[in-house]
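Appendix B. Raw example, untouched.
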Amino acid sequence: MGLDITVVAVDWERLESTPVSERLALLEEAAFPDVDLDWDAPPEAGWVWPEVAGPHWCGRYAFRCTSGSYKPHFWAGEAWEDVRDFAAPALRESLDGFLRGLFWHDDPAPPPLDGLLHGDPGPRRPGLLVACPPKAVAELGARWATAEPLLDGLREVYAVHAARPGGWIEDFDAFAVLLREWAAVVGEAERRGWGLLGLPW
């Protein structure tokens, strides 16, 4: 058993207007409504919008090649650590800012909004993996707008310094696919003026 991640875009005003003690249950119910599952259905991919009365206020993003595991995100962060010194300065600066807000942590500081859903995290209830209010989401969008046109310039140095054949993120293409999915997540949240959370389940 490893760590999972559930990424949700959230109407921040709705979340903050809910008492702290009720927020986690509210998100769980919205992200995974209690409905009969079709075990023969193909895996979910992309945005999953729960059926709710009134306007949507929360959506869950199902990454296409991760099976819900945090491991691909972790290994993409490790790959960036291996290759970033060889990136063009403009790409390094913008991708540092983009990935640092999501899954690459180059310092030991915890996510900044850990008290948003509950009290101190512990072994049975780890802290948030991603915590980006709407302003931070907009900043991530700006970082990606700079990084995306430069990303393919990493292909050759990635093959030399960061490729892990057979791993979760085995080559540049897998790395780029995951980053572009994160960019889609950020873009949709930014379009709605919402925040992002990465829940550890």
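End of appendix B.
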